[in-house]
Amino acid sequence: AQTVTQSQPEMSVQEAETVTLSCTYDTSESDYYLFWYKQPPSRQMILVIRQEAYKQQNATENRFSVNFQKAAKSFSLKISDSQLGDAAMYFCAYRVNNAGNMLTFGGGTRLMVKP
Amino acid sequence: ETGVTQTPRHLVMGMTNKKSLKCEQHLGHNAMYWYKQSAKKPLELMFVYNFKEQTENNSVPSRFSPECPNSSHLFLHLHTLQPEDSALYLCASSQFLTGSTDTQYFGPGTRLTVL
Asked: Residue B35's closest CA among B3, B62, B60, B69?
């Protein structure tokens, strides 16, 4: 069974600083996708960034980037120039390619941003 | 309305009540999902519908009964629930494109409290 682990239940960062959220996963598959979702207090899960496992280049979306280490099965999220609006729960998720469309989520990391 | 909407946003019910949760997606997607988000637990996938057909039932108790009359609407019928069923119920939709970056988009959730 695939599992996704987020070892940091809570993180805090000073506004304008950089923070990295960790995610590791366990799988025997070689073709899969990884996602980071953000869930603010409004509860709506929002896609932050996604990564195809076959791509070596790390995905970036504005201030958000990932460090994808396939051999280590690690998929961390880096948030640069943190803003107050970045405060939320962040979930890492995994999906196997060509095996339906089921997402497996990690337990989440609560990010607090200090002004 | 745009995106994925869910009604009601909050629901309190007794163990003997029957209620339904509604989800509607305005994205032209073909797949819809129900997730359960409990405190201190990862998101749990409950049901998946692709093109109105149920393709996943993740060992969900029969007191939860899904219904998908078309690709835009998804219901979760609830009856004789238990207090431990209190949780945030999230609906999601996706295009369902295997072999690609099929991404799920989430609604704001229904906060369910079972007394």
From this structure: B60
